[in-house]
């Protein structure tokens, strides 16, 4: 059961859409207030597990950590960094008592969870205004499901968004994109989309193309589409200050940008140089911004990634910017040369010096900061709903709880290292707990150079995440799957994703339509697996145990009940295994996973992209009797549970 306690006059975040009973007191917490904040404390039992917080550092069990909800553009994905790109203020306590709490405020929130062995949860909300949602249920899983259903229906991507995609910061010309499509086709590796990073633009302006590199963009989109490859452009939060540019002029005329203290439009330096931020808190500005995507949909685009929407600020009108060399500054930040705390101080100063128009009232950005990215997703999504008569792909870097109704998320600028593969494994269940089903990381890592081994192991994990995109940064080595010598192993592992698509798509859609999680911790279903974070349940039928250690050719797997072990290296080989713990061999060109007892896994034949998707000829693996297959045309909006049919063995 969900109830809420209202403190002060909370900002309307729209995170929760369900009608919720109001309670007088925060039953589970000891509450204290001072002039500027409200704090909540809860004494933990020794064996209590604390889940939640979505996209944060740390483990799936958040005990022992300190985390700060303050959306930040940061490539420092280490445990000493308390803030990543998103704020998901939801905790689940599971132990002596089982309950959930969602601290619904876009202000800065500090979570200390058994930090320094304090034995308690301490949450400090740096505001006097918030809705505290409390959820009571018998199980942690049940608590999460209640939150997800209170949020409202999750974003539903088209089928092709579950295909495999390639991306890189550094593709510039049509030729670069053709080469990638050719490379995949030549090597017989499936591919559904290629992302276009900021270099497609004219001087990094949103809603523009570099005319020299893309003389006829509509024709190019159609050409690639004819080859089964969709193009997915990036859109950044800031609009370049450029008198004469129609988008800029319209934004100024309509007053759709955030204001500075003096009442002018706030200027922030990002990739294009100085920009104005659309006021995503204002419905009129959201409508206007969403409308701009017509520029892309007219050219045939059907998918987008929204970036820099924490919002990222390299410098501003208040913090000293470079004279000419913005690019150098961007690089310095990228390479971590600027001291982090200096940057943080400057950012906070900037965030305190611009304003949103909320119902006619000027609200300081700093006080609603964590909502900005999610509201950009909302603006885009609502715009695309109006522009297109079918589903679209959309994922964002920054988010707040509730944004899952509008689009997916990716987890930002990770690095090509084994720790970040494991971080990806931890993020997926935590994001799902907060309702973000369509999610994934930069497979292979964004920063640094990826080895053949790391990419293969990472792909073998990403093969199960809804968003499966290989992305890398500007100055890294090539990371396309055909660049690492013999492509056979890549063909097999990415090929596996496509053979599993009938299951992945079906499980995703059922989870989204039933307010369920798509990926969950194994212990949500098998309590004996408590503490095992490197195995996950994917959908109703599968348990995965990815290899996340360099040099390993086998790994320990806990099988919590009798299951079917599936070994895939071009063919599916199934073998029953009894409950127990095993060392399982996993060669570099293999994926090993498990089908739960009494369940089935439908697999399709090998295809090169989702245009060949076919559920008329599925093979059912496992020892179950029937499987509920969700199937539709993969594109139109007619998605209901009526699209489920039962397959029998
Ligand atoms: C940001 C994004 C990254 C992108 C880059 C250039 O760092 O997180 O994915 O490649 O900007 O647009």
Notes on the protein architecture:
By secondary structure, the protein is of the alpha+beta class. It folds into three domains: 2-151, Immunoglobulin-like; 159-410, Glycosidases (TIM Barrel, Alpha-Beta Barrel), CATH 3.20.20.80; 505-648, Sandwich (Immunoglobulin-like). 23% of the residues lie in helices and 26% in strands. The strands form ten sheets. Strands 27-26-24-20-15-14-13-29-28 form a nine-stranded parallel β-sheet. Strand 26 (408-410), helix 11 (418-433) and strand 27 form a beta-alpha-beta unit. The longest helix has 26 residues, at 488-513. The two termini are 38 Å apart. The model has no long low-confidence stretch (mean pLDDT 96). The structure holds alpha-D-glucopyranose. Alpha-D-glucopyranose binds at residues 169, 197-198, 234, 307, 397, 412-413, 446, 471.
The proportion of residues in beta strands is 25-35%
Q: Could you give the distance between the termini?
A: 38 Å
Mean pLDDT: 96
What top-tier CATH class of the largest domain fits best?
Alpha Beta
Uncertain segments are none
- What is the molecular shape? globular
> What oligomeric state do these chains adopt?
single chain
Q: Which structural class best describes the helix and strand composition? A: alpha+beta
**CATH level-four homologous superfamily name of the largest domain:** Glycosidases
Bound ligand species = alpha-D-glucopyranose
Strand elements, count: 41
